[in-house]
Write a structure and sequence with these properties.
Number of strands: 0
Shape: rod-shaped
Structural class: mainly alpha
């Protein structure tokens, strides 16, 4: 369960980073 939560957190972090990256273009 912890691993699944970690994967979800990483995915959310990556998505947020991607959105910020696209927004800065």
């Amino acid at each position: 369960m912890m691993g699944h939560l970690t994967d979800f957190g990483i995915a959310t972090l990556l998505r947020k980073f991607l959105l910020m990256f696209l927004d800065s273009i």
